[in-house]
# Entry
Amino acid sequence: MSIAVSKLTGTTNYFEDFEVGAKLRHARGTTIGEIENQMLTKLVLNTADGHYNEHRMRSTNFGQRLVFGLVTGSVCIGLATQDTAENALAELSMTGIRFTSPVFHGDTLYAYTEVLEKREADRPDAGIVRFKHWGTKQDGTVVFEGERTVLIKRRS
# Structure
């Protein structure tokens, strides 16, 4: 399987530029720290011990606190947006969300995308693209999967 490596900023991400079956390895990665996980997890009031109680988590099979899954998903989608959303007019849906392996503070995440579908929209200046996104840790372990449908601007 061949996966194209994206540039640091997208210039070919209008509706016409996407091809069904194309796969991208997004250029950026990010290391998850205490701030990313704790701040966002607290803002949404997810107070599960798995995210907050280091003492209790040391005695589990994980051995440490877990990063909140929605933080993992948001980071992976965020890393993909440079190539899939710079010309987005609307986010239409997000489905099939799966968190397949734990993420811990200090893990570095990378994002990948496959173009699953392109179709006409009900307006002449845009089309609809459905993507499959997935994220991995530094060791290649898949930690996130999900599909996203976006209304994307056509070239003027």
Notes: The longest strand covers residues 108-120. Strands lie at 4-5, 23-31, 88-98, 108-120, 126-137, 142-153. The mean pLDDT is 91.
